[in-house]
Design a protein that fits this description.
Elements (H helix, E strand, L loop, with lengths): L10 E4 L7 H17 L3 E4 L6 H10 L1 E4 L10 E4 L6 H9 L3 E4 L3 H15 L3 E5 L5 H7 L6 E4 L2 H6 L8 E5 L5 H14 L13 H13 L5 E5 L5 H12 L3 E5 L15 E6 L5 H13 L4 E4 L35
Length: 333
């Protein structure tokens, strides 16, 4: 697209915070350090994070992404994705003798620990989440029985539980905060004694990025979210913009931008899901400049300082790499 394409676009407004969260930072770093320390190939169960660019970048460095552990040769190094895995997958990996590094986001692990603890106390569970999402499969797979998935308020009315008197609720960490609150309210109406988590399960980064879009959307004519179609939290950002009455589009790369989205639009808001690298945001800004945008400004938002330690054997000092250093993925934040 040449600089002669003009759409009326003048200003790009950036959401803060946006892009990588601490769990994604850590997951990518685990794969990169494993590649450096043990050499290629390193096998990764499921996409390490739901972002096409990140996955392709790691493939080029020697990571092999698989869904079934039978695809991994004996004695190989295996990384579990940030979304977490079921107990069955853990047991199979141990039985096959892989050297395993667990890149499960610590905030997902916190949900798994809560499920295990309350299960021991005799609780059954309702899980609020999206069917088929790997995080949901991992959390529900912590137990063999007694955990029921609800995706919406209608599911809450239909669900049949074994014991309504000892019931706890957990949620996927990347849901819409507002949707989850509505579904939780329905759960509490139907099961008044349900036990809630001490702190809500939806992660700080998901909450912060949604809060930023709530500020951004009313201030612009159209919102663009950088994120892959498989990314739950990115999809929620686009839906939230639309719910607030602003046109919303999601792009996996700058090539996905369509000039007609910006016809007659003066101000575009830009954000990125928690698994999307800042490098892609900068490339999208360049493409928007080619479409006529002349200025860029950032909105004020929450400052994130969370950092999660790496697993033993890949520690922060192990290879002299400062935390959060990933080759081309670490464009300025």
């Amino acid at each position: 697209m040449s600089g002669t394409t003009h759409t009326g676009l003048e200003e790009i407004v950036l959401a803060e915070p946006r892009g990588f969260c601490a769990g994604v930072d850590r997951a990518i770093e685990i794969v990169e350090r494993a590649l450096t320390k043990f050499g290629a190939p390193i096998y990764v169960r499921h996409e390490i994070v739901h972002n096409t660019y990140v996955v392709n970048d790691l493939k080029a460095k020697g990571a092999i992404f698989i869904e079934e552990l039978a695809e991994v040769p004996p004695g190989a190094t295996l990384v579990f994705s940030a979304h977490g895995v079921s107990q069955a997958v853990r047991q199979e990996a141990a039985a096959r003798g892989f050297s395993v590094f667990d890149a499960t986001c610590p905030l997902v692990t916190k949900v798994h620990v809560e499920v295990a603890k309350l299960h021991k106390e005799g609780y059954d569970f309702i899980m609020i989440g999206h069917k088929g999402h790997p995080e949901v499969e991992g959390t529900m797979g912590q137990l063999n029985e007694g955990i029921y998935l609800v995706e919406d308020v209608a599911d809450v009315q239909r669900v049949q539980v074994e014991q309504a008197d000892k019931l706890a609720v957990v949620t996927q960490t990347t849901l819409s905060v507002d949707d989850a609150a509505e579904i939780l309210a329905a759960v509490k109406r139907r099961f008044p004694n349900v036990r809630e988590p001490k702190q809500q399960d939806i992660c700080y980064a998901t909450q912060n990025r949604q809060d930023a879009v709530k500020v951004l959307a009313p201030a612009v004519d159209v919102v663009v979210v950088v994120g892959s179609p498989t990314s739950s939290n990115s999809n929620r950002l686009r839906e939230l913009a639309q719910r607030l009455g602003t046109a919303g589009h999601m792009v996996d790369s700058p090539d996905d931008l369509k000039p007609e989205w910006f016809e007659g639009k003066r101000r575009v808001g830009l954000t990125a899901g928690a698994s999307a690298p800042e490098l892609l945001v900068q490339q999208v800004i360049e493409r928007l400049r080619a479409l006529g945008a002349v200025s860029v400004r950032s909105l004020a938002g929450a400052v994130e300082t969370v950092h999660f330690p790496l697993p033993k054997g890949l520690g922060d000092k192990a290879m002299g790499l400062p935390p959060g250093t990933h080759g081309p993925l670490s464009a300025e934040r």
